[in-house]
Write a structure and sequence with these properties.
2 copies of one chain form a homodimer. With about 280 residues, chain A is an alpha/beta fold. Chain A has helices spanning about 10-20, 35-45, 55-60, 70-80, 95-100, 150-160, 170-200, 215-220, 225-235, 235-260, 265-275, 275-285, and strands at about 1-5, 25-30, 50, 60-65, 90, 110-120, 140, 165-170. Chain A starts with a strand and ends with a helix. The interface between A and B is large, with 94 and 94 residues.
């Protein structure tokens, strides 16, 4: 089977490596506008061949778009225009509503499966890719009813059987609403934490001498790239704004409690927050 | 050498285990008001003996206070009152200014060394203790000039030579100012992130199905206990309030940028936040 992966970064590269590790008969055709990334992907045996997008889709049985979400929105209808009737197209974008809307009325809509793997690290580029990234993780498929059964089967076969992912289904709007809270908000909380402490560093040069594992855990996502995240913010503005608004309100309430030295109030807030233990025991198991 | 450890939780327990692993001649006398924790500490060989505080300090060469900071403030002058002239007292509290102020004029002030190890996890209690917690971590000592040279030597010997910690010195006020940014603020950002998403769960039952490693990293500290953290907020109110105020301002600016779909602005913010890579490479090495 020929699999064309467009975008040979962390996610595209890890998908290629994971599939090849499981089944050596897969032939990966890589597409990347960044020549250096393309060359790295060949050397790192992420891709067996590098082609232009136009050429690659002619040879592919499956096309996986693993580019930033603003690029996916542009590429997805173009790729559907180009592919033959038996080719399946999927994407790995972190937003789903606008991407799905773009091809809602496309004559080959049935050949497309909207996907989002809940996996990643704060690193990027083909050098960050590793075969285990997706193994055992959650894969969300959206607008299932708009995909042909055969297309769904092929995509599920790849992610569920080959990469051992847990597949679940969701409406695109619900996906974007939820992911704003459990992923996009976490990234913004880290970006702002980073700039807050970096600003303070101007007056207090040695401030980071005292930073330990707690700080690094909360700020780790601030390493994430603007190229990937700015388009996500643009495509999920309403939901992110609402999540961020609630977060700021909760922080302000916390600040008021601390300013008032209200120990009972602080204790109640922390105890409420501790309920996350129930949730994390599920994620970390 | 008899070492009395008051508070047999994560930090006190790990100190005991780390010291015993390095030098089996240390005899640990444990003190804990929580009978269950005391019993657990005996079974887990954290403590060789459990005594009351009054009895323990009579047998100790070194007393280490590893209780919450509101308890340290109460216990520290009492312990200094009780101990003989050759006994050294130290504490492991996450705030230093108020604790140091409490004993500034104590006749035995020189026997006390104000310490704060930059180490911890979001877990608590003797069951969470492990011998490696402190190894190779940073140990901040404050108000060095107010401690006797002999007392400093004994404390440095324990933490630097036995636990291989990197010792540095700082004024208590600077310590509290810095730690508000690189530790206390991280905890509050996690507590508020937790309550924000838990609130949303009331409407969106399956919201945590999509939570992955990024979310769990930013929210992990929200498992931390109220018993430990409420007194820290009370003792470091001014600095925490200032850090939290800056954080809220940065988040609000981020929200304004997202609401305006200002892609250049978002890109600039993220690029600025990415500078944390320089800092984290130092912490994570």
């Amino acid at each position: 089977m020929n699999i064309c992966i467009v975008g040979l970064g962390l996610l595209g590269g890890s998908t290629a490596l994971g599939l090849k590790a499981k089944d050596s008969s897969y032939r990966i055709i890589g597409v990347d506008n960044d020549r250096e990334h393309a060359a790295q992907a060949l050397v790192g045996e992420i891709a067996d061949k590098i082609m232009s997008l136009e050429e690659a889709v002619q040879h592919a049985d499956v096309v996986i778009l693993a580019t930033p979400v603003n690029v996916i929105i542009k590429q997805l209808p173009e790729v559907l225009d180009m592919v033959g009737r038996n080719v399946v197209v999927t994407d790995l974008g972190s937003t789903k509503e606008q991407i799905c809307a773009t091809v809602r009325d496309h004559p080959k809509r049935g050949q497309y499966v909207a996907a989002h793997p809940i996996a990643g690290t704060e690193r990027s580029g083909p050098g960050a890719a590793f075969p285990e990234l997706l193994l055992g993780k959650q894969m969300i498929l959206c607008e299932r009813d708009r995909s042909d059964i055969e297309a769904l089967e092929i995509v599920e076969n790849l992610f569920k059987l080959k990469l051992n992912m847990r597949v679940s289904y969701m409406e695109a709007a619900a996906h974007d609403r939820h992911i704003a809270y459990v992923s996009h908000l976490s990234h913004i909380s880290s970006f702002a934490l980073s700039t807050t402490v970096l600003d303070k560093e101007k007056d207090e040069l040695s401030i980071f001498e005292m930073a330990g594992s707690g700080f690094s855990s909360t700020v780790r996502l601030a390493k994430s790239s603007a190229q990937m995240w700015v388009p996500i913010f643009s495509q999920n503005t309403k939901n992110i704004s609402s999540a961020l608004g609630s977060y700021i309100k909760n922080l302000q309430r916390f600040k008021d409690i601390i300013d008032a030295q209200d120990e009972e109030g602080a204790s109640a807030e922390i105890t409420r927050a501790n309920d996350i233990i129930r949730v994390l025991s599920g994620i970390e198991k």
